[in-house]
């Protein structure tokens, strides 16, 4: 119970920290663009702020994931690292913050904000879907660390939005970042799944097909449910890269990977 209280406090403090960082960056960037007479819409400024905070969270999550994976790879099922449990509280607070931030960014994109809260909320839900994935029984810190590492692609997906909003979509930086984004996304969000199965099989000296039959059905179903959207988003990234290679511009809707 004592650790739960600490976790709740950690979640509360970090949640306030995420929101404070979002507000501070919004204030600083608004002042910066106005001081330089740069015509940047309020929506795009908030979009950049959301991407900045998301990028910071992605780096933090990835660092924690790498530490956990490196510490627990000798025993993928039973090795324990405290960061696996503690960062879950931080990730939970970020999820709450991100939901609120995305809602505020969505409102800033509307020509006229509806007066009724129900109308505002329904318009938001039509454009956003949320995925919550938290389930384990105190084992498998190695796999938790692997899931933290999927955020390694986050800095590149968010940097793409920032480069676009600041008028650098046609720059070399945008192209190089796009390549890094696709490579990191494919590695950390797609190849991570067969890697986890192979790591489990290596510990028990069985092949990957035997792993599929050995582990509980809900683990396979859960992994598949998470993997399929990643394959979809990777496909959109590759199509966007092909589109740019043909001299066409990628739209704002195509840039955002949710």
Task: Summarize this entry quickly.
The chain has 258 residues and is mainly α. Helix content is 75%, strand content 0%.
What does the model show?
- This protein has 258 residues and is mainly α.
- It has one domain (2-255).
- The protein is 75% helix and 0% strand.
- The chain has eleven helices and no strands.
- α2 (42-72) packs antiparallel against α6, α6 runs antiparallel to α7 and α8 (192-204) packs across α9 (208-214).
- The radius of gyration is 20 Å and the shape is globular.
Number of helices: 11
SS-based class: mainly alpha
The shape, in one word, is globular
What is the total number of structural domains? Answer: 1
Q: Gap between N and C termini, in Å?
A: 35 Å
Order of helices and strands: HHHHHHHHHHH
Into which percent range does the helicity of residues fall?
over 70%
Unreliable spans are 123-136
What profile does the largest beta sheet have? none
Rg over CA atoms? 20 Å
What proportion of the residues form beta strands (DSSP E)? under 5%
Mean pLDDT: 82
- The beta-strand count equals 0
InterPro entries: TLC-dom, TLCD
Subcellular location: Membrane
Pfam families: TRAM_LAG1_CLN8
Protein name: Ceramide synthase-like
